[in-house]
Amino acid sequence: PVKNEGKYYEKQTESSTEWWVWQSPEVINVHLPERWGLIQFQDSNTNNTEFLRNDKWIATNALLDTYSALKAFHAVTGRYTDRKELLRLPTYILSGKCLADLHIELDWTGFKVTARPLGKHSEEGHIRTDHFLWFGKEDMQYF
Q: Source organism's superkingdom (predicted)?
């Protein structure tokens, strides 16, 4: 926090910072939105409606978790891999219950990961080495 001192702002060092989150992001960094939990708001009574499944949310998390696993693998070995069994991936990615498929392709920039959601009409999601994430065809890069 800062205190307005006329023309200047002065940092208040004696105050403490308090963060409130609805789910632990498992890191002390609010600048990682991929670690935030998902909240669903409703107009009816609590526990009166089913949670709406979002295939794009699942695919996005799978892409970001795979990205992190590939970066960690690279930090240790100095290279990337397209072999999922060599990566420390969460079980939901490999179980077949949350995604139809996850494919890792190595290229001259490093890698591109493609996640295919379970929904019949869901678009594939992709993430590149530079952390760029998009849904749709490979040549249609939008988030």
A: Eukaryota
